[in-house]
């Protein structure tokens, strides 16, 4: 049990990486507040896990950080781990990028992460092993067609997290970010199911010759959340099966 009696918040926990992370953390002894949008069948996703408490809320709402931290405090009376995982992506070439899509991408992928970090820090300071894990992407460093807003938002997550690491180290809080590669989740499956040849291209690009699964990221998040990563901070952990190795 690597997270015995720790309390964690995981956002975007109804699907994909967030769902797998909430469940692995619970399996490892943590109490988890799983957050996702109201219409996402969050409760059904975690029905078999007694130590996962579900909280339906958009992380982009103005009162989200307040209400999410309040719910965690009421239930757990502590907080040790914050996983900012909720994220969205639009595919629009630069001449078609709408202000709405750009702003929404930053609201969900960046501003909501910052709000949750800001609200969580006073509580994380009370933890003997405070952890912030923000989910970025290999697109924080690389790019692809149509992903200007997404790439810019994930680069912002990297910069935000490095700064958190610097500012919060003296309180014993680590802050790291994950850089997933091509992972089979709710974000990617609709396209890959409709066009399997696209999934095949991504799989072949990776040194390990396969797509990532949500549990690959959950295991990396578990490492960063655990005592094993007590001296790791400000780090971007690439979990992509070697996708980005070739220039
Ligand atoms: P997913 O769509 O399966 O899961 C994302 C979850 O976030 C969904 O359940 C969704 O409802 C939730 N969410 C979206 N907006 C929200 C909001 N405003 N409030 C609360 N919840 C919200 O996708 P995923 O691939 O598991 O994505 C998780 C993270 O991983 C995202 O930050 C994504 O950018 C990142 N990522 C994914 C990949 C990939 O290949 N799948 C690659 C790199 C990075």
Observed structural traits:
alpha/beta; 42% helix; binds nicotinamide-adenine-dinucleotide; globular; 247 residues; 7 strands
Written overview of the protein:
With 247 residues, the chain is of the alpha/beta class. It has one domain: NAD(P)-binding Rossmann-like Domain (Rossmann fold). It is 42% helix and 15% strand. It is built from eight helices and seven strands; from the N terminus they run βαβαβαβαβαβαααβ. It has a seven-stranded parallel beta sheet with strand order 3-2-1-4-5-6-7, sandwiched between helices. β4, α4 and β5 form a beta-alpha-beta unit. The longest helix has 26 residues. The protein is globular and about 45 Å long. Bound molecules: nicotinamide-adenine-dinucleotide. The site of nicotinamide-adenine-dinucleotide has 28 residues, from α1 and β2.
What is the strand tally? 7
Q: Total domains, how many?
A: 1
Poorly predicted regions are none
Largest pleated sheet: 7 strands, parallel
Taken as a percent bin, the fraction of beta residues is 5-15%
Strand order of the largest sheet: 3-2-1-4-5-6-7
CA radius of gyration: 17 Å
Instruction: Quickly give the CATH architecture.
Output: 3-Layer(aba) Sandwich
- What is the CATH C level class, in words? Alpha Beta
Spell out the CATH superfamily: NAD(P)-binding Rossmann-like Domain
């Amino acid at each position: 049990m690597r997270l015995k009696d720790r309390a964690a918040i995981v956002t975007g926990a109804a699907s994909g990486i967030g769902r797998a992370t909430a469940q692995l953390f619970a399996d490892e002894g943590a109490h988890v507040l799983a957050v996702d949008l109201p219409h996402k069948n969050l409760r059904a996703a975690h029905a078999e896990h007694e130590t996962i408490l579900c909280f339906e809320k958009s992380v982009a709402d103005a009162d989200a950080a307040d209400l999410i931290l309040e719910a965690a405090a009421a239930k757990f009376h502590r907080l040790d781990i914050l996983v900012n995982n909720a994220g969205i992506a639009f595919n629009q070439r630069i001449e078609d990028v709408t202000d709405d899509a750009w702003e929404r991408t930053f609201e969900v992928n960046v501003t909501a992460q910052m709000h949750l970090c800001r609200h969580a820090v006073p509580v994380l300071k009370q933890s003997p092993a405070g952890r912030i894990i923000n989910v970025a992407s290999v697109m924080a460093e690389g790019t692809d067609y149509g992903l200007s807003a997404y790439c810019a938002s994930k680069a912002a997550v990297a910069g935000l997290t490095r700064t958190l690491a610097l500012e919060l180290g003296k309180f014993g809080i680590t802050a790291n970010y994950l850089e997933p590669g091509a992972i089979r989740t709710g974000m990617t499956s609709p396209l890959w199911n409709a066009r399997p040849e696209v999934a095949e291209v991504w799989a072949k690009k990776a040194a390990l010759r396969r797509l990532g699964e949500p549990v690959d990221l959950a295991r990396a998040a578990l490492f960063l959340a655990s005592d094993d990563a007590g001296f790791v901070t400000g780090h971007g952990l690439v979990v992509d099966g070697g996708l980005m190795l070739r220039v």
